[in-house]
Design a protein that fits this description.
With about 400 residues, this protein is of the alpha/beta class. It has 4 domains: about 55 residues, no CATH class; about 55 residues, lambda repressor-like DNA-binding domains (434 Repressor (Amino-terminal Domain)), CATH 1.10.260.40; about 130 residues, 3-Layer(aba) Sandwich (Rossmann fold); about 140 residues, Rossmann fold (3-Layer(aba) Sandwich). Helices cover about 45% and strands about 15% of the residues. Strands 4-3-5-6-7-12 form a 6-stranded parallel sheet, with helices on both faces. A 3-stranded parallel sheet has the order 8-9-10, sandwiched between helices. It has a two-stranded antiparallel sheet with strand order 1-2. α9 links the parallel β5 and β6. It starts with a strand and ends in a 10-residue tail after the last strand. The N terminus is likely disordered.
C-alpha cells in the first residue's frame, strides 16, 4: 500500500525529509517513526506507533465547556450563534475556545445544526460602496462574535440581478441575507424570493413589512441647525442633492422643523442638484449673489460642502467668521482635508451595520423581530468650518 502526496504525512508524524513527491510505504513510515523515537528517548516504543503527545491533540467542545464553567449544551449554543444565552456567557465560552485554540469541525457543525455559518451580503449598487464598506465592517464585528463568515455579492444596480443573487446564495446554503441598499431610493424587496431571513440596511424597501435599518436623517438635520443657532447663525441657505432622494427629503424636513422651532426659516428655497462638486460651486456662487447677508450654508454632503467652502473663500468671505459651513457624512476624504476642516454629521454606519446584523441573527434563531424601519441617530462632529475654537 502506498500513500501519495504530503498532506497526510504530518498526521502520521513522518519526518519531513522521509519522502515527498514519490510517496512512501507503511514500512518506511514505521521505520522513520522508530528512528525519531530512538533519537529522542534512546529506546524503541513498546508496541506499534507511539501515541501523539496530548498537547498536539485538538481541543474538544467538552473541554471548552469545562474551562468556561458551562454545560456542553450551553457551549454548543454559544459556538453555533444561538440567541437563547446571555452575551456574557457567550463571550466566556468564546474566550475559552480561543484560549484552548478550539477549532470546530465546520462540516460536522453544519450537518448537526443545519446551518452553514455563512451570511450572504448583497450590495445593491456600486454607487453605494463608499457607504457599504463601513456598514459591512460593523456587520463583520457581529459575525466575528458568532464565528460566522460572509459572502459578498454586488447586484450592480440591476433589480433582476439582486433577486437572482438572492436565489443563488440561498442555494449555496447561506443562513441569512443582509442587503445593503441606497438611501437615495427604495430597494426592491427580495424577501419573498429569497425564502430565508433577510434584513435591509441603508435604505427602505418596496415592502413596508421588511426589517430595515436606516440613518435618522431628519434628526441629523435638526442637530446641524441647533448647532448653528447656538453659534448665533440665523440666515441659513441649504445646498443639497437630488430632490427626489428620500435622504435629501428627510434632511430638508428636519431643517425646516428645527428652524421653525427657533422661530427661523431658510433663506430662499433649498438648492437641489447632483452630488457634484462642480454644481456645488455654481450653487454657492448663486446663493452668495441672491443672499449676500447669509451667515451659514448647510450642505447635503461633505463632497458638496468642500466645493461650497472653496467658492465662499474665493468670494473673499471668511469661514467661519462670516459664513459657517456644514457637511454631512463625515467622509474623511473631504471633511478633514478642507481648510478649515468641515463640521459634519457622522451617520454611524458601522453601528448601523452591527445593529442590522444583530437583527438578522435574532431572526435566524427563530425569534420574530417585527417588520418596519428602525432609525439610527448619528453624531455631530464639530470642526473649524463652524467654530474657530475647533480649527
Amino acid at each position: 500500500m502506498r500513500l501519495r502526496g504530503v498532506t497526510l504525512l504530518p498526521t502520521l508524524g513522518v519526518c519531513k525529509d522521509a519522502c515527498y513527491n514519490e510517496g512512501v510505504n507503511l514500512a518506511e513510515i514505521g521505520a522513520c517513526r522508530l528512528q525519531k523515537r530512538l533519537l529522542v528517548t534512546g529506546s524503541p516504543p513498546s508496541s506499534g506507533f507511539p501515541a501523539e503527545p496530548l498537547s498536539s491533540r485538538p481541543a474538544t467542545l467538552t473541554e471548552v465547556a469545562r474551562r468556561a464553567g458551562v454545560s456542553l449544551t450551553t457551549a454548543s449554543k454559544a459556538m453555533n450563534g444561538r440567541d437563547r444565552i446571555s452575551d456574557l456567557t457567550r463571550k466566556r465560552v468564546l474566550r475559552a475556545a480561543r484560549d484552548l485554540s478550539y477549532s470546530p469541525n465546520l462540516v460536522a457543525k453544519s450537518l448537526v445544526s443545519g446551518r452553514s455559518s455563512i451570511i450572504g451580503v448583497l450590495l445593491r449598487d456600486p454607487m453605494v460602496h463608499r457607504f457599504a464598506m463601513p456598514i459591512v465592517i460593523g456587520a463583520q464585528s457581529v459575525l466575528d462574535q458568532r464565528e460566522f463568515s460572509a459572502i459578498i455579492a454586488d447586484a450592480r444596480g440591476v433589480e433582476s440581478r439582486l433577486a437572482d443573487l438572492a436565489v443563488t446564495l440561498r442555494q449555496r446554503h447561506v443562513d441569512g441575507l443582509l442587503v445593503v441598499g441606497d438611501n437615495q431610493s427604495k430597494t426592491p424587496s427580495i424577501t419573498a424570493v429569497a425564502k430565508i431571513p433577510c434584513v435591509y440596511v441603508h435604505g427602505t424597501t418596496t415592502n413596508h413589512r421588511d426589517v430595515t435599518h436606516v440613518e435618522d436623517d431628519f434628526t441629523g438635520a435638526t442637530r446641524v441647525v441647533d448647532h448653528l443657532v447656538e453659534l448665533g447663525r440665523a440666515r441659513l441657505v441649504h445646498i443639497t442633492g437630488p430632490e427626489n432622494a428620500p435622504a435629501v427629503q428627510q434632511r430638508v424636513l428636519g431643517l425646516a422643523h428645527a428652524l421653525s422651532a427657533h422661530g427661523l426659516s431658510l433663506v430662499g428655497r433649498p438648492l437641489y442638484g447632483p452630488w457634484s462638486q462642480r454644481w456645488a460651486r455654481q450653487a454657492a456662487r448663486l446663493a452668495l449673489a441672491d443672499a449676500p447677508d447669509l451667515d451659514a450654508i448647510v450642505c447635503g454632503s461633505d463632497q458638496i460642502a468642500a466645493a461650497v467652502l472653496e467658492a465662499v473663500v474665493a468670494s473673499g468671505r471668511q469661514v467661519p467668521e462670516e459664513i459657517a459651513i456644514t457637511g454631512y457624512d463625515n467622509w474623511a476624504v473631504f471633511a478633514q482635508e478642507t481648510d478649515p476642516a468641515l463640521t459634519t454629521y457622522d451617520m454611524g454606519l458601522e453601528r448601523l451595520g452591527a445593529a442590522a446584523m444583530s437583527d438578522l441573527f435574532t431572526m435566524m434563531g427563530g425569534t420574530r423581530v417585527g417588520g418596519g424601519t428602525r432609525h439610527h441617530e448619528g453624531v455631530l462632529v464639530v470642526r473649524g468650518s463652524t467654530d474657530p475654537r475647533h480649527s
